[in-house]
Amino acid sequence: MLRVLTLILFLVSLSYGFLEEAEGVDPGNRVCDPDEERAAQSCKNGVTVLSATFESIQGQHESFTASDHIGINQNCKTSLTCLKTNVGCSNISQNDVDTLTKKCDYMLYLTGGFYACSQKLKNRKDNSLCVENFFDNAEVSKDTQCTNWSDNRACLKWTIRDACGRSYWKQYKPYWHLKHSLMGC
């Protein structure tokens, strides 16, 4: 038993040392072979699809189903693993990984944990400008989009609390801030 425990500790320390060493590599100095470059380009294609999903989900998340949530979750896991593996190739940076992580977190929450509330809010869309803006994916300028998002915070807070309960606003609030930062506001 002691030998097994010692072996496990040894393996953990080796893998920790490896991870620590890999994290210290400067992606700017990484030289990628042609296979790594092809893999990185494939990652970028996956990220493009997820970014398009992120854009479409803004105004359509109430229509996404459980199977969409599962698909988004799997695509996020695959793309994030791919990006992390290929940081430094094809101009993939840690910032790309961080941005996709945030987008995935937001999409997974909207299509998962917030789904029931979205269904309730959908019924209030015609009577509330802030809810309409919450679901709206209209092509407007970034400044207008940021202003609408900021101006609607209080209205959205009270509408979510009224339609879905206080706990939904508490859960959604960090995602509201996350979306605000993703929009570059």
UniProtKB/TrEMBL annotation:
<keyword id="KW-0732">Signal</keyword>
<feature type="signal peptide">
    <location>
        <begin position="1"/>
        <end position="17"/>
    </location>
</feature>
<feature type="domain" description="T20D4.11-like">
    <location>
        <begin position="32"/>
        <end position="179"/>
    </location>
</feature>
<dbReference type="Pfam" id="PF01579">
    <property type="entry name" value="DUF19"/>
</dbReference>
<dbReference type="InterPro" id="IPR002542">
    <property type="entry name" value="T20D4.11-like_dom"/>
</dbReference>
<protein>
    <submittedName>
        <fullName>T20D4.11-like domain-containing protein</fullName>
    </submittedName>
</protein>
